[in-house]
Design brief:
Blueprint: H1 4-15, H2 20-27, H3 31-40, H4 58-67, H5 72-81, H6 88-98, E1 118-130, E2 133-144, E3 150-155, H7 160-174, E4 180-183, E5 190-192, E6 199-200, H8 202-210, E7 214-217, H9 227-240, E8 245-246, H10 249-264, E9 267-268, E10 273-274, H11 275-282, E11 297-303, E12 309-312, E13 315-318, E14 327-333, E15 336-341, E16 344-350, E17 359-360, H12 380-388, H13 393-401, H14 408-420, H15 423-436, H16 441-455
Parallel strand pairs: 1-4, 1-8, 4-7, 13-17
Antiparallel strand pairs: 1-2, 2-3, 5-6, 9-10, 11-14, 12-13, 14-15, 15-16
Length: 462
Amino acid sequence: MLDQNTRTAILKLHEQGHSLRGIARVMRLSRGAVREVLRAGSAEVPRIERPEVAAPYREAILELYASCKGNLVRVHEELVASGADFSYQALTAFCRRQGIGQEEKKPVGRYSFEPGQEMQHDTSPHVINLGGKERRVQTASLVLCYSRMVFFQFYPNFTRFHCKVFLTDALHYLGGGCATCMIDNTHLVVLQGTGRAMVPVPEMQAFGERYHFVFKAHEKGDANRSAHVERRFSYIENNFLAGRAFQDWEAANRQAREWCDKVNGTFRAKLKSSARELFAIEQAFLKPLPVWVPPVYLLHQRIADVEGYVSVTTNRYSVPVEMIGRRVEVRESKDTIEIYDGPRLIATHPRAVEPTGRHFTLPEHRRPRGRGVKLPETSVEEKILLETLPELAGYVRALKEHSAGRGTLALRRLLSMVNDYPREPLREALEEAAQYGLYDLDRVETVILRKLGREYFQIRLN
């Protein structure tokens, strides 16, 4: 079929007095095609009207489309069962031309950004080869809208703590931030509302104020508003992750940073330069980093267990032995686990990225094999007894040897007898017990009571 420009030229040549044969020869067309255009007398291309085999079933199609919940496969099955004789492709073509089940297409928007005006942050799930296994991870990315500088990292999951850790790393990588950080309506930042009515969580609002930017959310369903960061996820998946395997989390994030350095310095035809060259212009407009940035950490209150460990996300970290049973404060940061006794730092461990249930013990907290907690050789009770009755030191040592364990209960019983009974009958009874090897304190106490009854409680008759 001849296009509109060709048809216009044929009509113009005909008005100039050229013959049909001459027009066909000059334009290298058949005389029949020229004759058809001249007969129509219009440059408009006629529409080809073909009969629609599904047209008689239009009302039935609309009813079935609603009852089958938009599933055209089921609509075709029901039509065939009722006697219709046309293919599934004919049904879909008819629905497409009639606009049945088709959403109205809308042109996308175009946004222009000034240097330092906006940066976009979002996350997306990806599958990576980590430690020889396929792992589903969360990829966090930040893009400057003017220069297209990109920074991303991987995390096993993404919480508010990870969000602050990532943004801190990204802003330090870029050397500053833009006035606005555009996000989707994520619960990590949004307290209530959506789009322009979004109210951020006070914790995240304070974080943004520290770096001199504000969080803004795009309207619900307006994915084009954050297109710069969304487009990078496809590039990361199909370029960076293609054919790569990582030994651990540290290696994955280190290679991600190196890849960002490479991509940001690569010439891009659409920008007519590299992102690094545009960043040289934008850098002067970025909000400067604070002079001092407090570390991002999660605060936990723990009690050291009987083994000398505290638990954080199932991982157990050692503490000094003297802290067993005491309350400590644990600060979980990006790379470390810091344990405090009040204001004093008592232990620092490398942080395990994932919950593994393992024990992490510092060398100074490791006791030699075969030795328990070193206890004092002389108990408090024994010291008091030796100071009170030094002449009976032999009996006290023998009593310990003949008692279970360290003899603490027996020594405590003997000390109670020293405090309850007069000194002289007590000393005599213990000397006799030592002479005969008597270490049953119940029987020793019986001897003491006999001496008291015979010498101190005699009844005199007049």
